[in-house]
Design brief:
Number of strands: 15
Number of domains: 2
Low-confidence stretches: none
Strand order of the largest sheet: 10-12-11-13-14-15
Strand content: 15-25%
Mean pLDDT: 90
Radius of gyration: 27 Å
Helix content: 25-40%
Number of helices: 10
Order of helices and strands: HEEEHEHHEHEEHEHEEEHEHEHEE
Structural class: alpha/beta
Distance between the termini: 77 Å
Largest sheet: 6 strands, mixed
Shape: elongated
Length: 363
């Protein structure tokens, strides 16, 4: 008997029609292990035979030529556990039963994955925009293989001069209207923000972490919302300095620039400064969604630590120098039932000025 050898066509058909999953219906695990920092991606699936490759194996058919035994029609994709079980319990797992397993699994794949490579997951697009127009042409590419449901909800938060009155009401009204029908935890919302950071932080605060939210960055050089194919870059770190029982807590997010807090903290007593930032702030910092995930985790840890030392009279001050989707992510970490009065700031050359205030109703 010749050694096992499969043509490229056979491998493409087998792995493609099985969608890279075990064909046993109560298993169907993905037959890959994602790469790590130190190791490559690993395929852990077994190419199993309906009629055994060897004459002495399970469900063997001695009349088959070696080439026929290694063709797509005689193969099924399994995980190692299911492979061992089906071959070990050969009386129960007849050739007819395993052939039916394969046919049923491939039918399940076709039914589960709609045409043209689109998944079954639909997202509602929310655009947070200021005076800059937001190009929606690459929204679909950014979400692929998922897709958008209906028209995008556009929230325009442009200002008349520097008057922030009405911005909070606009954001709260439009986002709550989006969340009010159905279970918020079942919502899937894709946010495409291109607005001032105070508006984005407030939008994240109203959204909270209840719905499933995906955030996207507009990459101006490539004119696209799709994430580039890059490795995860630097993630934000926390540093703390100041009073143990502060009356004022300043959070400075130094991602695209380092924030000068001196003009704001001057004159205050009992101040704690919490900085969340990267080693060398840059306008090109955000290139991977994993950086956003870690920014959210880091911000939440900073806010939770500050809650432990805050009193009912403590005021928080939140200053953010970074990309718009990061501002939304930070705002999502503000607990709507526990966060003290929080002042948001906007940079107006040469200083930061107060823009919006978050008043937690339950504090």
């Amino acid at each position: 008997m010749k050694s096992r050898s499969y043509t490229h066509r056979t491998l493409k058909l087998l792995w493609g029609r099985a969608a890279g999953r075990c064909a046993v219906p109560n298993c169907r695990i993905e037959l890959y292990v994602d790469k790590t920092q130190d190791d490559p991606i690993v395929a852990i699936g077994d190419i199993a035979h309906l009629h055994s490759h060897a004459d002495s194996g399970p469900r063997a058919d001695a009349s088959l030529l070696a080439e026929q035994r290694n063709e797509y029609e005689n193969l099924i994709l399994l995980c190692k556990n299911c492979h061992a079980r089906l071959d070990g319990q050969k009386n129960e797992n007849t050739i007819e039963r395993i052939r039916q397993l394969k046919e049923n699994h491939e039918a399940w794949v076709r039914a589960s994955l709609p045409e043209r490579g689109r998944s079954r997951t639909g997202w509602k697009a929310v655009v947070i925009q200021d005076q800059w127009p937001v190009d929606a042409l690459s929204f679909d590419a950014a979400l692929s293989p998922d897709y958008l449901i209906g028209d995008a909800t556009r929230i325009n938060v442009s200002l008349g001069g520097e008057d922030w009155s009405g911005v909070a009401e606009k954001l709260r009204g439009d986002i709550q209207a989006l969340l009010q029908n159905g279970d918020p935890f079942e919502k899937r919302i894709a946010v495409f923000p291109l607005a001032r950071v105070s508006a984005c932080i407030y939008a994240g605060y109203v959204l909270t972490n209840r719905p499933n939210v995906e955030l996207f960055q507009y990459h101006r050089d490539d004119r696209t919302w799709a994430w580039p194919a890059t490795d995860v870059g630097e993630i934000a770190q926390i540093s703390v300095d100041g009073a143990a029982q502060p009356e004022h807590v300043f959070f400075a997010f130094d991602l695209t620039a380092r924030i000068n807090l001196e003009p704001l903290v001057h004159g205050f007593s009992g101040v704690r400064i919490i900085r969340i930032g990267i080693t060398s702030p840059s306008s090109r910092w955000l290139q991977h969604p994993e950086q956003l995930r870690w920014l959210g985790i880091t911000a939440r840890e900073a806010f939770e630590a500050a809650l432990c030392i805050s009193s009912p009279s403590t005021t928080w001050h939140l200053l953010y120098a970074g990309p718009a989707p990061g501002a939304v992510k930070v705002g999502q970490q503000l607990n709507p039932t526990m966060t003290p009065r929080t002042l948001l700031y906007e940079y107006v050359h040469p200083h930061h000025v107060h823009s919006l205030t978050i008043e937690c109703p339950n504090v």
